[in-house]
Amino acid sequence: MGRSISQDAVHKQSLDDPKAFWGKHAEALYWHKKPSVVLKEGHKTIATDIKHPHWSWFPDGQISTDYNCLDRHVQAGYGDKTAIIWDSPVTKTKQKYTYSQVLAEVESLAAVLRNEGVEKGDVVLIYMPMIPAALFGILATVRLGAIHAVVFGGFAPASLAQRIEASKARVILTASCGIEGTKKPTSYQPFVRGAVETSQWKPEKIIVWQREQSLWENLSESKGERDWQKLVELAKENGDSAQSVPINSGDGLYIIYTSGTTGLPKGVLRYAGGHAVGLMLSMAYLFGIRGPGDVMFCASDIGWVVGHAYILYAPLLAGATTILFEGKPVGTPDAGTFWRILSEYNVNTLFTAPTALRAIRREDPENKHFTRYGERGGFKNLQALFLAGERSEPSIVSMYQDLIKKYARTGAQVIDHWWSSESGSPMTGIALMPSKGDVSGNESEDVPLQMKAGSAGKPMPGWNIRVVDDKGGEVGRGTMGNIVLGMPLSPTGFTTLFNDEERFYKGYLKRFDGKWLDTGDAGMIDQDGYVHVMSRSDDIINVAAHRFSTGSIEQVITANPSIAESCVVGIPDALKGQLPFAFVTLSAADHPSSPIPSEELFKSVQDSIRTQIGGIAALGGMIQGKGMIPKTRSGKTLRRVLRELVENAVHGDFEAEVQYPATIEDAATIDVARAKIREYFEQKGSKLHKAIEDRPKAKL
Ligand code: AMP
């Protein structure tokens, strides 16, 4: 020992010789047919003369992800290890399942699905709440070599219908209800029936998990509706069980519809082989979860890519324990729920979204809950708190960094890491166990890099991350631009959209002529190679020909201790083209009702923007209010919605309709924002130039 390998060196290995690198990491899995080729690269021709790069990982390999998640561990003698812990404060239930128990459930359910007509290559749509049956349903689908499309439980019928039609699902797995936070159970029956009625495509069967909190009334045999528990019981009585069916490495494992803020959802197709290899490596390398006995708590939803990967697949591929949480960061019952879970189950790694931490900070600004569990030694095993989904402002990273330094394992870090539905696994981060990526064969010890607040860490293996200008030319270190990817992407990455090659080309490759794949994100790589993801490219604002990311301005605003959350959008300005305009929520328990911030607060924010970014980025206005920043259910701020509202207001229109995606967490926030904007503009004068009179003179 004594030698350590750096994350940079592992990354270099992966790009210099991808075949050697991924070929070695593929050995960690069981292949029904070992791949003889690691990577095949070429081109695909679509429609009229358009050719674009295409590649496939492990093209002649055959694999069953299900076998690797379950059978492999049971056969290796880990059947009694805990696979899944279900913690559901909303139903006051806690349950544990060992690997053997999960395997037994999945074998029976897969037999049921087979009897109901599901075959290899069919699509099964899964519309479920956060209960163990949802995970069994996904695994049973995969066991048969079928493809799952998990749709976030609670989507309205129209959105669900779109996804049924797009995926041409043969069967739907669902439950009688979902339970969100402290609200009454939501019956899924009208949603699912309504969606099937609207959809042109009709699934043959709807298999319903009955929850006692609200039953699916009068299951209709003629509509193909079936009682899940009864079918499984019968299968168990008959000793019906299904073996895992391997599929080609390049066959689809799942389709995930991206949240997208407008337009039709895009179905990202994930391939079996590359997905399993990439996730398996990431578990130990990035997240520090080594195998049986280690516990991962990913507080996401199974409807999102993060939930697919780190609630389900990666922890089970590694043989570790995963926590399935049915609740919210606050309100179920309080802002201490996450911290209770960490201490109750000795969690090693927590993964959540910054929005969850903001919600907790708002409820518990003094971190009383965290401190209470910390002082009792509840975070002894905690080695990292991973954040993703949107940018984490440095103020939240530093706050939790200070807390975990005090109470968690020595060296524990808060790690912002960047990824997307398209990437399927993290593209950046801080690797907790760099030695696990090293393919040089030398023994080495783990010395993780230090996180830099404001960055999302450094590239993960296989991700060739570059920053380019609008013409595709690379910009220097420290310069903002479009974040793009060199191809081939790392093995978990997508290579097309489900049944929509043209949209794949137009949406991701056309902009840079097939040379780079456009991530849609903007940011920079700093002098030390850390990647800073500042915002979506659409959220870049142009003030007097200077480009700013809204993220960098928000970062300065949220550093102000009296501000809990902020959202910056660009508004039209006759002189400068655009001006930044901020929406803020204060940390005060008694939030002032006026939308106009105190002069003192406004001045202090402007002063910090002026000193940290420059006078040119000074705000054109700032509205304060609670519950007015719309977000998606996966925690992304919907800046476009606020931008449209404020743009309309600038033109004196306070009523204009705005489009918002079906993934919105709470549509009522839009009404609150609308009312605040109106109040603000009416008090300041109906037109923007009045509203910005108090804008300090820019020092250029
Ligand atoms: P989705 O496909 O719904 O997972 O959304 C992916 C998008 O979320 C990315 O393209 C980014 O815009 C954003 N995102 C995810 N993680 C981060 C992060 N750590 N920092 C900044 N943006 C992020």
UniProtKB/TrEMBL annotation:
Q: Which domain of life is it from?
A: Eukaryota
Please name the Pfam families in this protein's record. Answer: ACAS_N, AMP-binding, AMP-binding_C
Positions in coiled-coil regions: none
Q: AMP-binding enzyme C-terminal domain: which residues?
A: 553-636
**In the record, what terms sit under GO molecular function?**
propionate-CoA ligase activity
Q: Which InterPro entries match?
A: ACAS_N, AMP-bd_C, AMP-bd_C_sf, AMP-binding_CS, AMP-dep_synth/lig_dom, ANL_N_sf
Q: By its UniProt entry, which PROSITE patterns does this protein fall under?
A: AMP_BINDING
Provide the Acetyl-coenzyme A synthetase N-terminal domain boundaries: 8-69
List, for all copies, the residue spans of the domain called AMP-dependent synthetase/ligase: 75-487
UniProt similarity note:
Belongs to the ATP-dependent AMP-binding enzyme family.
Q: Which PANTHER family does this chain map to?
A: ACYL-COA SYNTHETASE, ACYL-COA SYNTHETASE SHORT-CHAIN FAMILY MEMBER 3, MITOCHONDRIAL
Q: What is this protein called?
A: Uncharacterized protein
User: Mind giving the lineage of the organism this protein is from?
Assistant: Eukaryota, Fungi, Dikarya, Ascomycota, Pezizomycotina
